[in-house]
Amino acid sequence: MTIPASTIARDDAAVAFDGVSKHFPASGESVAFTALNNVSLTVARGSITGIIGRSGAGKSTLIRLVNGLEKPSSGKVRVDGVDVGALDEGGLRNLRRSVGMIFQHFNVLSSRTVFGNVALPLEISGMDRRAIEARVRPLLDLVGLADKHGRYPAELSGGQKQRIGIARALATEPKLLLSDEATSALDPETTQSILELLKRINAELGLTVLLITHEMEVVKAVTSDVAVIDKGEIVERGHTFDVFTHPKHATTQALLSGLPGSKLPEAIARGLKPAAAPGDRVVVRLTFFGAAAERPLISQLIQSIGAEVNIIAGTIDEIGGKPYGSLVVAYGADPETVEKAERFFSENGLVTEVLGYVA
Amino acid sequence: MSPDLLLLIGKATLDTLRMVAIAGFIGALIGLPIGIFLATSGKGELFPAPNVNRATGLIVNATRSTPFIILVVAIIPFTRLVTGTSIGTKAAIVPLTIATIPFFARLVEAAIRDVDKGLIEAARAMGATPMQIVFKVLLAEARPALTLALTMTIVSLIGYSAMVGAVGGGGLGDLGIRYGYQRFMPDVMLIVVIVLIVLVQLVQSAGDRLARRFDKRSRKT
Ligand SMILES: Nc1ncnc2c1ncn2[C@@H]1O[C@H](COP(=O)(O)OP(=O)(O)OP(=O)(O)O)[C@@H](O)[C@H]1O
Ligand SMILES: [Mg+2]
User: Fold this and answer.
1) Domain of A276?
2) Rounded to the nearest 5°, which phi and psi values hold at A39?
């Protein structure tokens, strides 16, 4: 592929969206629609970057711009510095052969065996039989389908079909893997195993993964960076850990509220009062990161305030590879206890938020 | 029944088979690319040419809506040009082929359109050329449906070939009309009908079996 010098940018990003908009003109029954509005975003090389948003937010449109399945109405999309919009048909095909893609509905050929499906992109790029054979075998090992190589997709489970999709996407040894809702059609357990596989591929092969989803669980489990898209605009982005622990935009907060551990038990939430009456207890959310998540905080807290502490809700989890904990506790609202508790929190670097008071 | 008559029936059967085989072969050969083109040349499709697509569709419809017997008569000059005669088995092959082309093309179009659009998308994402998509995805995935389309085409051809008998085309239909009807020999008519039924049954079950063998979409035990 020869690339005109003018299309090469100096940035080091695997993918860069630069003021990208996408309008779909009115046709027949449907009215004109702006699916993406001035999106700028970079995907760091070697990262697993997530894009999350509600249905219809423009996620699929955005990812399809990366391999030129869709053309931007304005703005530029660069892959490894190459302006996708400036490529002709032949250039686009070359680009696509170096970018793998996996799909929500797997899109594997029912007429081909597992082996044949993984071989397809290699046949398309004109590789000879023997080289294909040598390339496909280790890939089937990698995704755990070696014993199924002669099976047809109809004989496999959804998770196994997606493994074909992943092996197929990796067949041409791409540097970038695009994933459009790859786990949305799978149950939670299978989702976990597919995500583990993506993580391993990212670590072992060092390839960049751009992953689109509407599930916060998926973002939390595998991504290092995330962008939140809403009605065609990027409303929040950053390291996954930061976005999760300090969500700013209402859409992010709404998407996060579905996660387990982020909600108070219904009975407590209903009894919360904004001000304390004598004898009430204060309800506080503690957030702790990194090393703090691994210390026996609760027993230390009880020791230092010398009072009774209830644990109301809590999760200890990992976000973007960092341990993270969120704990809702209640203790006496009398000034003495409160002061001791606050001293303990600041000594231990805990982020606290008073949620209210209960009798 | 006299051995002469049996010989006649045997020859008529062979004539029918020859007409069906040749018209089916040439018709399918020409109908297949036309069907593929119809299925892939709409706006925003693999080979976008919406105007040619519409024009082709129009011609196909026109040919299909012409009653076969009228088609046979209407193209006599063309038939004579191609075969040098307008009667007999050889001449009958021309209108049979002409009728087969649009019939098969429409069935091919439907079979190709039935292929999951997600597979075309996946192949595009792999960097496939439109031709690679046709051969490696569309034709491969539509193979069971195409087999059934060909089966249906041959079955209709057997029916049409009996009709050309009415205009001196030879074959089983010809025999049935000349002996069974004009000379009032109901036993000949009966045998002709039975042979036709058997032919259709054989073609249909062979086609079904082949299509099932090609179909990998369902689990087999
Ligand atoms: N070819 C098209 N023509 C017109 N409108 C389109 C087209 N493709 C997408 N859209 C519109 O653009 C918007 C964004 O679509 P997109 O498929 O990108 O959403 P999404 O975020 O992927 O949603 P989902 O999670 O449901 O897959 C939708 O409102 C959709 O109707
Ligand atoms: Mg989508």
Assistant:
1) 266-358
2) -90, 125
Q: Rounded distance, CA B128 to CA A82, Å?
A: 20
Find the B216 Cα to ligand 1 centroid distance in Å.
32
Looking at the fold, whether A245 and A179 belong to one and the same domain comes out as: yes
At B45, which CATH number? Answer: 1.10.3720.10
A221-268: pLDDT as tens digits: 899 999 999 999 999 999 998 898 888 898 888 888 766 566 677 777
Lookup result for tokens 């606050």: A342
Supply the CATH number for residue A286's domain: 3.30.70.260
Which pLDDT tens digit goes with each residue over B165-211? Answer: 777 788 898 888 888 888 888 888 899 999 999 999 999 999 999 99
Ligand 1 atom with the shortest distance to the CA of A35:
12
At which residue do the structure tokens 């204060």 appear?
A282
Which residue blocks in chain B are alpha helix, DSSP H?
A: 3-40, 50-65, 68-74, 76-83, 89-113, 117-125, 130-132, 139-141, 143-164, 172-175, 186-214
**Cβ atoms of A21 and A39 closer than 8 Å:** yes
Cβ(A171)–Cβ(A99) under 8 Å? no
Q: Is residue B64 part of a domain?
A: yes
Using a CB-CB cut-off of 8 Å, the residues of chain A touching B125 are 67, 69, 96, 99, 101, 178
A102 contacts A169 by C-beta, under 8 angstroms: yes
How far apart CA A138 and CA A140 sit, in angstroms, is: 5
Tokens of A254: 């709404």
A73 and A216, same structural domain? Answer: yes
Q: Which among A196, A231, A256 is the end of a domain?
A: A256
Task: Enumerate long-range contacts of A22-26, CB under 8 Å, 24 or more apart.
Answer: A22/A58, A22/A61, A22/A65, A22/A70, A22/A72, A22/A73, A22/A232, A23/A73
Contact B218 A154 (CB under 8 A): yes
What backbone torsions phi and psi does residue A19 show, to the nearest 5 degrees? 55, 45
Q: Do residues B132 and A124 lie in contact, with contact meaning Cβ atoms separated by under 8 Å? A: yes
* Residue B220 forms part of a structural domain: no
Chain A hits for B126, CB-CB cut-off 8 Å, are 96-97, 120-121, 124, 168, 172
Measured CA to CA, the distance from residue A186 to residue A148 in angstroms comes to 20
Output the CA–CA distances (angstroms, integers) from residue A49 to A45, A127, A209, A226, in the order listed. 10, 31, 6, 6
**What pTM value is reported for the model?**
0.85
Handedness of CA B212, B218, B220, B221 (dihedral sign): negative
- Same domain for A250 and A281? no
Q: Decide if B14 contacts B176 (C-beta within 8 A).
A: no
Nearest protein Cα to ligand 1, atom 29: A56
